Amino acid sequence: MLEARSWPLRNIGTALRGPLIAILLGFLAAAVLILLIGKDPLEAAGALWRGAFGTPNNMAGTLALATPLIFSALAFAVAFRGSMFNAGVEGQLIIGAFLSAYVGFTFDGLPAIVHLPLMLAAGALGGALWALLPAIWRVGLGANEIVTSLMMNFIAIALTDYLVLYPFRLPGQSGSAIRTESISPSADLPSLWPPYNVTVALPLGILCVVIAWYVLRRSVVGYEVRMVGSAPRFAKTAGIPPGRHMVGVMMVSGALAGLGGAAQVGGVFNAFVSPFATGLGFNGVLVALLVGNAPLGIPFAAVFIGALQSGAIGMELTTSISRYLVAALTATIIIFVSARQFSGRRLPWQTVARVRSRQPQVEAEVPADRRDT
Amino acid sequence: MSAEPTSASAAAARPLTADVSSGQFALRLEGMSKSFGAIRANEDVTLRVRCGAIHGIVGENGAGKTTLMRIAYGFYQADAGRIFVDDSPVDLTSPRVALGSGIAMVHQHSLLVDSLTVTENILLATDQPILSFGPAQARIREIGQQFGLAVEPTRRVAQLSVAAKQRVEIVKALYFDARIVILDEPTAVLTPQEARGLFAHLRTFAEQGKTILIITHKLPEVMAVTTDVSVMRGGHMVYEAPTTDTTEEVIARAMVGRSVALRMERDRTAGHEAADLKTAPETVLEVRGLTVADDRDVVRLRSVDLDVRAGEIVGIAAVEGNGQSELVEAVTGLRRPVQGTIRVLGRDVTTSDPRRRREGGMRHIPEDRLRAGVNPTASVRENLVCGRHYRPPLAGRWLMRTQQMQRYAAGLMERFAIVAPDASTRVGALSGGNMQKVVIARELEEGARLIIAAQPTQGVDIGATEAIRNELSRMRDEGAAILLVSSELSEIVDLSDRVVVLFGGSVAGRLSGMEIQEEQLGLLMMGGGSGSGPIDA
To answer: Among B147, B168, B172, which residue's Cα sits nearest to residue B159?
Structure first.
């Protein structure tokens, strides 16, 4: 998995084989669940499919839901490949979203060609800075980045809540969803499929995926990041500075998360709304886990999760099956996938590599005079 | 690899002297054998431990003493042999059963749970329901007073020093009424003062009727604290004596073995050391006053001076944990020294990062092959290019050149006879020997002026060992300066032009030329003898 094969398509195939079978098993488990409550699994599957892809509206909904997931999943995957567990994708996405919204409604009157990139850059910058802190704490103080980046999520949520409620409050609002003023039309991400929310952010996300893949695979920096990520002591011994790369991947990761936030602001809400990203970051982690953090698999997995979410709504409308069934289905799939990833053991469907007999533990105890005979 | 010992004649344990056999035996291991696959770790080993003795078990790494002790506390079950406690046969099927028979093990590295208190840790081993900690705490205090072991039962283990943790382990053994306590290299983690305190405790236990078994590498400790000593070599018990009847020299000879010492007719090329001393070629590595501390800020290497000149191999002989790892880490830039300077070809590199040192011609064959030497999840190609991967011809400014990398890797695989299906094979799928060849190929290819080789042949099969040693000799002959750290004395003896012996983090002796004999080295490594004095700075 570490080194890609000769061409991308084969790489995608390798990356997706395991997850596809996990998905199949997940669906089987869900079917059993549906049977247990006395419903028809095929009917549910049909409703799910129609909800996800049945109409142009539903299909657009799927793609719109998938778009931010591409960014947040790629953010997680990039950090993970560089040995950093970024549990703060959600917070970085939120900070990026707020900063891009700020740029979006403050710099009114700029031409779109300037304003759009500026807004996206603000999002990336916000996310990168929010990710920089846990990275520095990890490298400088040895503080576990999982904990610190996770905690930064709550700070991000509370901070942006405050900003929306007080300094940037739009007068005359009440209720649970509060928003800033709308971004100017020049910062509005153009739709690829009017009137739906499928914006240029989708190809932008895919572009980021391809760039990340290429950089990881071919560039000097990508090589070093992979070495630091897969064997930190090896990297250090060979003269690759792990700390610098840890900070680097976290900032890139945060920037990607922030871009995802900017894409939501410019493509969906046209403002910063609170609450903003309920679960976008964490669902991104699920997407990344589904494809074992291989960048090229991410768009597919993102569309899959997007389709499930979009389809769940349709299924609930047309059948009597709760959309939470889909949450159970997603969770089951993740369990099947991560059982492989975290146990390190190969499940039956995976290619049985040569079984290498492990050296007996007493190897070190072999006396010197015996070794030489 | 053949498991046939070279010293088959040493198979039978020497009969015990009258003095020893007159006492009653607390523990008898009769004819123990234990194999792991083809490796015979213990062969027909007999050990008799008198009641109230402090019995030292010594031997080189791999002599089989740890295996024997693991059998004694029920961790391993022997393939053959019988165990008697107080002359009754016992079947030690697990450590808990052994504890029931009064045998407890104190491990070298504390196995206590840091977040729990002393009492909680001790009670972890009980199978009784715990209703209250009160009685247990009272009992722990009582044991502490009886044996003079200062242990506060309500303290959290995390707050304790290493020595205090060890005391807790000992109290734990006593709490469960252990009469036979086995300590595995108990002083390895202690300061000399703490070690003296431990010895005082051990003597108290013995006076109160406990029996102590102590595994150690260090001969002065054997002389200082034990009443009896047994020496193991190559899976056999080769020597036993009451400590008062023996000397460090006799024990050292038993540990190393005459048959090994005789095998030293090597091609110590007449030219080398003589030529070196006369024409004094360029000093490549110059270490002065180097003091290095470990992660816990314990000083592991103290004011060490060391020179390695072009065209010579300087061996570092030391028992594990005597500062050689810290020396290597400081020289290669992985650990910042507390004090001292490191110069390579006259340039001060004390604070340079590893990459800068590599660019200056330093190469490093790390001790921890699987984690530091190779990246097992990466391909042979990616492993071979590491360290050169960012410079032409293997890379441009930003991108790596795949074809050049492939050609380079294929070339090295052929030159160093690395057996792998192709350069894309995961290194983790290779044998230990081929893995090490990947390291050697990467490190010795082109531009190496100074090679820091740590345990270069550890766990490597005979063929690869030969190839690696030849490669190091060739590099030396081509003018590279080599610092060789090895726990295998035969390797040090065979390859080194000069040897520096480290003991307890300081230089215990310097030998050169024909003075390099295993017996003398072994003695110095154990902290015995005074060495032949400094030969050169």
So the answer is: B168
